[in-house]
TrEMBL record:
InterPro entries the UniProt entry points to: Aminotransferase_I/II_large, AspAT/PAT-like, NHTrfase_class1_PyrdxlP-BS, PyrdxlP-dep_Trfase, PyrdxlP-dep_Trfase_major, PyrdxlP-dep_Trfase_small
GO BP annotations, alphabetical order: amino acid metabolic process
Top enzyme category: transferase
Gene name linked to the record: patA_5
Segments forming domain Aminotransferase class I/classII large: 36-388
Keywords: Aminotransferase, Pyridoxal phosphate, Transferase
Cofactor(s) demanded: pyridoxal 5'-phosphate
Molecular function terms from GO: pyridoxal phosphate binding; transaminase activity
Family stated for the protein in its record: Belongs to the class-I pyridoxal-phosphate-dependent aminotransferase family.
Annotated protein name in UniProt: Aminotransferase
EC number: 2.6.1.-
UniProt lineage: Bacteria, Bacillati, Bacillota, Bacilli, Lactobacillales
Length: 397
């Protein structure tokens, strides 16, 4: 095995020193060594991809659809995505120049931030938040401006946003909204989205609106930021969570043509184009009535699971902002137990064989919380809650 010349390591992107490997993935790997562990760690739907979607991928392979597609994705998929966004959320995009197909929403995050940010720019991140935004921003040389939303049930208020803008002024290049949220499951209603749009409309701040969990909104219909601020919004979505297609790696990015054209350059440099069979499957998922019904079936199952886990954990003394979407519970560790969230999660995994993600993985405001993914069968969740109950009964101080 070759050993790197040590001095070469000094020549790398120096911003890499500010980040580390994903804390979520690292903790998941760590606890995987524990025998008989139940892992409710990753945001990984347990459903199989619907058969009609799989058949679309198979047809693509059998038709020898093996050559480069257009860099921004097949027009068939971009038209399906445009139709989906119009039908579900009443927002209109031109599939020819306002939509890019990316390698999952994670590539869309990377492409967008890398296009927007210059070294020294500031980006507003309401926390707790999916940590990829923090890492990519730092690697791009930007400075995160964290707004801890834990005191407001994990919702960014217009007042919080106004205060951050007043403090940091013209240095702010972008703000990230992720709703329904990973890790909290909290989302925004129509009134809240409109109020945030009103604050941002008079600025030159770009909104990166990560709505990958939009189809998993429970009590209220999802309202997109692009409905109220389309001229400043880059919208991210995809099929990973809505159709249990995480391994297909298909994301959707939409926005004003002039911005999308710039982001498309980074996309082209980074990936060239997505896989043809995966795009054919995604077009079936987004562009057919059967595909749009698939999400409703899964959502009904997730809702049942949410209610079961939420009820159990609140009875055990966890404080939880009841999630309105996604498939996560973000719970405050009760007093009388280990308050360091990493230490609590390790102790729970080692003693009772249940793995949850420490809340501080998601930035300021996540300390003292744990995140549970209920993207698992009800039988698995029942076993998990039995183990959690036993741990809480045996380890309170």
């Amino acid at each position: 095995m070759p050993e790197v010349k040590p001095s070469l390591l000094n020549n790398l992107n120096q911003h890499l020193k500010l980040v580390g490997p994903s804390a979520i993935r690292a903790f998941d790997i760590e606890v995987s060594e524990i025998p008989d562990i139940i892992k409710l760690t990753l945001g990984e739907p347990d459903f199989n991809v619907p058969d009609h979607i799989k058949q679309a991928a198979i047809r693509s392979i059998e038709a020898n659809d093996s050559h480069y597609a257009a860099s921004n994705g097949t027009i068939h998929l971009r038209e399906a995505a445009a139709g989906f966004l119009a039908d579900r959320y009443d927002i209109d995009y031109n599939p020819t120049n306002e939509i890019i197909v990316t390698i999952g929403a994670t590539e869309a995050i990377y492409d967008t931030l890398t296009t927007i940010l210059n070294p020294g720019d500031k980006i507003i991140l309401p926390t707790p938040i999916f940590p990829l935004y923090i890492a990519v921003g730092l690697v791009d040389g930007a400075e995160p401006v964290f707004i801890d939303t834990s005191s407001n049930d994990f919702v960014l208020s217009p007042e919080m946003l106004k205060d951050a803008i007043a403090k940091h002024g013209d240095d702010i290049k972008a703000v990230v909204l992720n709703f329904p949220s990973n890790p909290t499951g909290v989302t925004y209603n129509d009134e809240q989205i409109k109020a945030i749009a009103d604050v941002l409309r008079g600025t030159d701040i770009i909104v990166i609106s990560d709505e990958i969990y939009s189809e998993l909104s429970y009590e209220n219909s999802h309202v997109s930021m692009a409905k109220y601020l389309p001229e400043q919004t880059i919208l991210l979505n995809g099929v990973s969570k809505s159709h249990a297609m995480t391994g297909y790696r298909i994301g959707i990015l939409a926005g004003p043509a002039q911005l999308v054209q710039k982001i498309a350059m980074i996309h082209q440099f980074a990936t060239t184009t997505a896989s043809n069979p995966a795009m054919a499957a995604a077009a079936e998922a987004l562009g057919t009535e059967a595909g749009r019904q698939d999400t409703l079936v899964m959502k009904a199952e997730y809702l049942q699971r949410r209610d079961y886990v939420y009820d159990t954990m609140t009875q055990l003394g966890f404080k939880v902002a009841k999630p309105d979407g996604a498939f996560y519970i973000f719970a405050k560790i009760p007093a009388g137990y280990i308050q360091d969230d990493f230490a609590f999660a390790r102790d729970l995994a080692q003693k009772n064989g249940l793995a949850l993600i420490p809340g501080s993985s998601f930035g300021p405001g996540g300390e003292g919380y744990i995140r549970l993914s209920y993207a698992a069968s009800i039988e698995t969740l029942q076993k998990a809650m039995h183990r959690l109950t036993a741990y809480m009964e045996e380890n309170g101080k």
